Amino acid sequence: MSQDNLSIKNTLSNVVSLEAHESKISPLVESQSKFLASSLSLSTADLEFSQSSTPAPDLVCLSHLRWNFVYQRPQHLLTRCAKKRRVFVIEEPIFDAAQDGKLDIIQHESGVWVVVPHLPENLTEAAINSIQQRLIDQLFAEVQIHNYILWYYTPMAMAFTRHLEPLVTVYDCMDELSLFAGAPPSLKACEAELFKRAELVFTGGQSLYEVKRNQHPNVYAFPSSIDKAHFAQARNFKADPLDQADIPHPRLGFFGVIDERMDLELIAGIAEAKPNWHLVIIGPVVKIDPAILPCHKNIHYLGGKNYQELPDYIAGWDVALLPFARNESTRFISPTKTPEYLAAGKPVVSTSIRDVVNPYGQMDMVYIADTVAQFITAIEAALHQNSDPSWRTKVDTFLAQTSWDSTWGGMIQLVESVINPRKDRTAKIHNSEVKKLAN
User: Using CA atoms, how far apart are residues 420 and 150, in angstroms rounded to an integer?
Assistant: First the structure.
């Protein structure tokens, strides 16, 4: 590839744009960033060197989640993966005025390459899939993706990736997506096809494992893990963020996506029954009308915060909440927030989500309640729990057994166990052919 064939724009990140209808990419562009004093430059040679200097196969992820939306399971795992190999995360398309379709490729500060398709509006499903397939093929050619792992979070990507030939296909099933609001009718069929093609299936929790284990011969449970050191920062309170500083105590906190999985009636009931308690709700509102959110003087919606800010907010809470509704969309969830709250040193009250009840509720690390009255009783008990050293010891002993590092280590070991035998078989065939020629 010549330098002229790749366009890279450097701000805080490195950006590549691929136009589907062109055989070449636009010339090198430099721009200033408000975060940096001057632009950096990355040449085509840098990309080629990155590939040739890393013997590990690339990892190509197909995701229904935006990389910069909420920091969760994919980010924890793939940032660790990117330390030893190139990682490309291909998001769902954005529909805009793009002519013929294009890809924006942004290198995140973690090293992960985030690939965002831009497609014209008002396309048929067949056209959407056709253009995405063409864009992915061009991406693979331009950045020289040859030996690679396919890592799926969305089965819907099967429609435009079934022609690819990876070393191994992995389905990291973090949720039962078919039960979520607005799930495509074809999702189950796509997942069935993905099960047939995948060598490995990982699940985001034990309850999801119990459902999927009979659908594939190689299913492994990898429940929500923890970046303990990050959230443990909340145990050393320094100062409240400005938008939380004036909220009175006691504070009951929640962070995460606010959608159909949240029990809004429960939130409203607690606020009405205890007007002197203050509920701090952090996170974006998605798939539901913000107008239906309960509005009480003691409920404070602070909007979305980035991952680095969360410990500062949690530090100022008295109790952390998991007020999930008990409906189809929450039947198999395994909230990453559970160990994160505990690592922050906060007592937790949750509805009876199966993967919270077992193990956290059964081990008396988390209070389980479902009705408003039960929640109030549990919160009252939780407000005194920080003074119990045995509870803190139990929590820390449990959390010491898991980490995102160990979770990723277990996953990649299984992936390599699939790849290596194939390499061995290929080598044996090659050696056999060499011997035949020699004779």
Answer: 16
Any bridge partners for residue 105, and if so which? 16, 115
User: What residue ranges do the domains of the chain occupy?
Assistant: 3-221, 228-399
Residues 6+ apart with CB under 8 A from 165: none
Q: Which has the closest alpha carbon to 422: 412, 410, 430?
A: 430
End-to-end CA distance of the chain: 40
The SS3 call for residue 83 is coil
DSSP string, 94-123: EEES-SS-EEEEEE-TTSPEEEEEEEESS-
CATH superfamily name and code, 228-399? Glycogen Phosphorylase B; (3.40.50.2000)
pLDDT digits (tens, 9 = 90+) for 159-169: 999 999 999 99
Burial (CB count within 10 angstroms: exposed 0-12, middle 13-18, buried 19+), residue 290? exposed
Mean local confidence (pLDDT), 260-288: 96
Q: Is the dihedral of CA 82, 397, 281, 266 positive or negative?
A: positive
Topology of the domain comprising 3-221: Rossmann fold (3.40.50)
- Cβ atoms of 310 and 287 within 8 Å: the answer is no
Bridge pairing between strands 113-120 and 14-19: unpaired
**Beta strands 87-90 and 14-19, pairing class:** unpaired
CA–CA gap between residue 7 and residue 41 (Å, rounded): 11
Q: How far apart are CA 202 and CA 209, in angstroms?
A: 8
Which residues neighbour 218 within 8 Å (Cβ) at sequence distance 6 or greater?
Answer: 199, 200, 201
DSSP label of 86: -
Given this model, what pLDDT does residue 184 score? 81
The pLDDT-based confidence of 41 (bands split at 50, 70, 90) is: very low
Residues β-bridged to residue 90: 62, 115
User: DSSP string of 346-411?
Assistant: --EEE---HHHIIIIITTTSSEE--SHHHHHHHHHHHTTGGG-HHHHHHHHHHHTT--HHHHHHHH
Q: C-alpha angle with apex 303: 260 to 251, nearest 5 degrees?
A: 90
In CATH terms, are 3-221 and 228-399 the same topology? yes
Rounded to whole angstroms, how far apart are CA atoms 352 and 340?
18
> Running DSSP on this structure, what letter comes out for residue 424?
H
Q: Over the stretch 363-384, which tens digit does the pLDDT of each residue have?
A: 999 999 999 999 999 999 999 8
